[in-house]
Amino acid sequence: MGAMAVSVSRAVAAGIRDHFMSLPGWARVFVLTFALYGIPAATKATWFTTHSHLAYAILNGSFSLPAPYGTTEIVHWPNGEKYVAYGVTPSFFLMPFVAILGRGVHQPVCSAIFGAAGVACFWAFLGHMKGVSEHSRKWLTILLAAGSPFAYYAAENGGNWSITHSVAVVCLLACMLLSRTGNPGWAGLFFGLGVLSRNPVLYLAPAMVLVLWAPEAESWREIRPDWRKLAVFLVGFGVAALIGAYYNWARFDTPFENGYTHILNNDPIADFGRKPAFALEYARHNVQHYLFNPPIRYDRFPWYGPDIAGMSMFLAFPALLLLPLARFRRPLVQVALACMLVVQAMYWVFIGDGRGQFGMRYTTDYLPMVMLLLMTALGTRFGRFAQVLTVLGFLVEIWGFATWRANGW
Fold it and tell me: Which H or E element spans position 297?
């Protein structure tokens, strides 16, 4: 009887394995990534579920949040409506889940699904790049999925702030893939949705255009602008921009106000509204915080871990040490690096430093730029040192997950 049970189990396992291997490559990547993300996400409890409540409101014909709101950051409008300033794209993505399961849907699990889709997009994108070997393609995908802070923001948190970052990254990765598969209109739409999730993503537009035109060019002379592609890309982006403009106008009677001004001017704790949002005086703190902020000691298990106020981006993402290996003569690298630095410079002079974060959450906005640079550095040879940093990044993520849970954050 025991031998028969073992034989049946082996047959079932073999059938599952054969079925899994028959799936397209992107589907296998999605399944494996969701298996990695789904467990921590399913066991995560958060009351910061504004995006699910907003999805429910939109499905019922309103942009005003119904109670409970899932956040403390509410714009109280004179007509009694309650609005939020967070990017609206996560709410759009959550609408099918909320339509089926209600607004009590488990938002972190949905975030894990979105994150797994983003990793699958990146894997597929790498397959359309001639300068990326299969060995490097596998390791670069693992690096994004498990060795970068994307794992935390897509899988461990899933709350109001984290999901806007991870969804923005997913939209950019989808944009990159669609650009390489001959779908510039859809690429532009997803880029626009990324901007509606995190507005600073807009500064990455030049790199997205170069991905559309000539991501493998070795010099500027090789680039032949395709204005038709760009025009179609802009049409797609324009659709997203119009959606965002209408969303703002319907709430605040202007297409240019997303609600953040009201949040910042009425924050009872921070100095928003009493100090300028951007000033050079903030750089002294922010540069040190982003580059050098160390872990801290706790008075209980696990005794030593990341600071909830943030931790050096290099400690949270060890593979950043490989950026000097990027092929800086390539136009894509130059443009992606410039875009990345523009976004980072903006955050260095911003009054806020993110807080409530693993690593530095604002750096997630330009994570696709980092992956493009690492692709050029490691596309033909993902060596032992890069593999060690990838595994180290994965261990750092696990450490972050564990300490977050232990501290009840």
Answer: strand 296-297
Q: Which amino acid is at 121?
A: C
Nearest CA to 344 out of 372, 364, 363 is that of 363
Where residue 17 falls among pLDDT bands split at 50, 70, 90? confident
Instruction: Give me the sign of the Cα torsion angle 302, 304, 310, 314.
Output: negative
- Decide if pLDDT at 76 tops 90: no
Return the ∠ at Cα 304 (arms to 406 and 371), rounded to 5°: 85
Phi, psi (5° rounding) for residue 352?
-100, 150
Residue carrying the six token digits 């001639």: 130
Segment 280-302, tens digit of pLDDT: 999 999 999 999 999 988 887 77
Residue with tokens 């592609």: 229
| CA gap 119, 138 in Å, rounded | 11
Q: How far apart are CA 263 and CA 259, in angstroms?
A: 6
What is the H or E stretch that residue 384 is in?
A: helix 384-407
- pLDDT for 120: 98
For the entire predicted model, the pTM comes to 0.94
Alpha carbon distance 284, 393 (integer Å): 27
In a 3-state reduction of DSSP, which class is residue 350? strand
Is it true that the peptide bond before 302 is cis, omega within 30 degrees of 0? yes
Cα-flanking dihedrals φ and ψ of residue 83, to 5°? -120, 165
Cβ atoms within 10 A of the Cβ of 245, count? 14
Return the beta strands (E) in 136-293 as ranges.
none
Task: Check if the beta carbon of residue 255 is closer than 8 Å to that of residue 249.
Answer: yes
SS3 83: strand
Euclidean distance between CA atoms 106 and 24, whole angstroms:
28
User: Angle at CA 48, nearest 5°, toward 47 and 50?
Assistant: 115
Cβ pair 250, 258 in contact under 8 A: no
At a CB cut-off of 8 Å and minimum separation 6, what does 64 contact? Answer: 57, 77, 81, 82, 83, 251
Biggest CA pair distance of the chain: 76
Backbone phi, psi, residue 223, to 5°: -80, 125
Residue 89 has pLDDT above 90, yes or no: yes
The two three-digit tokens of residue 58, written as one number? 């939109």
Burial track 146-164 (b if 16+ CB lie within 10 A, e otherwise): bbbbbbbbbbbbbbbbbbb
